[in-house]
Amino acid sequence: MFLQLGASPISLGLCHRRLRKGGSAGDAAIAVSAVLCVVEPGASHLGGDAFVITHKSSDKSNLAFNGSGEAPHAANANEFSVEIDKYGFRSATVPGLVSTWFAIHEEFGLLPISELLAPAIDYAENGFPANSGFVRRISHHLKQNPDTKLFEQLGIPTDLKIGDLVIQQDLANSLKLIADEGRSAFYEGEIAVRLVAASDGWFSHQDLEKHRTRVVPPLSINYRNHLVHGQPPPSQGMILLEELKLAEGFDMANLSEADRIHMMVEAKKISFADRYDVLGDPEHVDVNVAQILSDQHIAKRRFEIDMGSANLEPAKENQEGSDTTYFLVADRDGNALSWIQSVFHGFGASWAIPNTGIIMNNRLTGFSLDPNSPNFIQPGKRPAHTLNAWTVTRPDGSLAHVGGTPGANVQVQCNFQLIVNAIDLKMSPQENAEAPRWQHLNKPGETSNIERYDGVLQIEGRYPKELQQELTKRGHDVQFLSDYGHGSAVQLLEVLENGTYIAGSDPRSEGHAAGL
Description:
single chain; alpha+beta; Serum Albumin, Chain A, Domain 1; 2 domains; seven-stranded antiparallel sheet; 22 strands; globular
């Protein structure tokens, strides 16, 4: 069996143990997801969301699990004046992660949920040594939100030092409830009661009871005789697929590096523009992804790419939360899960459900207050999401590639580069993970929800100076990052036609690749 992690090293050993006990890739993924909530609470938690793309080898089927939550019944535009609250329970949507555990377990589970949550319970109850990233995240969050009571709610001291033991008894108790009572413990039982009471009715019992993880076919496109599977709305996975369709009209393997980066940045701009025109919750608005990905639309948009000059027309792009964790798992049977989970901004709402140790997301801030936006806030509606993961299969349906990355709006740009590197440039997973990357962003310092901007193209320092000069000539505002300063850390798996697994893990993060 095999597993690949873009997460805390603590997760690695427990995942091996689940697989050795006869568990599936799905079992291992649930165990990893739960442990991450304990050891990396700034990036993901039980009060957050998850999106998963799965491949089942027995029938070569692919599924998209949408574990995003809805706006509570009290959340509407009239509740907010200038912008949606960034912190506190009024910034949160219904959590979807726990529901996703049980949806994945129903499809892939071989071991009982109680056994899968046991490692997370152990780390919460008996503690783990804080690493530098854990301490740094707390310090950073306190600078951003000095009045927060979050760490007091969690029982985590704010003067924590590297190596100090982190014990979270309330969280351990909550995980035990879920292990013993199942999904209902979170959405109907004691945890739900505490959330409704502590939020002064902002969340209702009906909000929680009605929530379900959506399990649907993924968005899929053909790229160079491969099928790329991505997240459907309300995820912005559509951006990745549109970028690839635009790129298919170019000989990416034989373009110069300057031409290739220029073309991809221009495709990124087009795809983001289309996203902001149409993306919302498809259960509330008509999201015509088929039209966006149609050959006619792609041909029209591809014609707009000028290979000699950057498009400097002002665009709009949300300032999205970037505290997220990605990992992937595959087993000996050929099943695989590409999994991403988040609380949106660092430590989410900076608010925990009292006496549960559960941090709530602040995903409500992903909505728009503009009534003309397809992403306009409404009760029961899911916000547009940056979270997306992907897999690639061959024409015969067999698995070829799995990958993903955290990183807010950088995700779909980074994943674009990963797939082009793997399919067009034939890079191995580790070569791909280590390859220099670029990111096209709002200019630093812009903080409002949607900004007009002409963008900055940041490239890692390992690119030659001549490349910067060539891209600058075409109109790009180019800035050098440090050699490995790109804002995302990737994890990759390639499955050869003979079934051999090859993995790669990004040196930019604490991620690991391991086989069993």
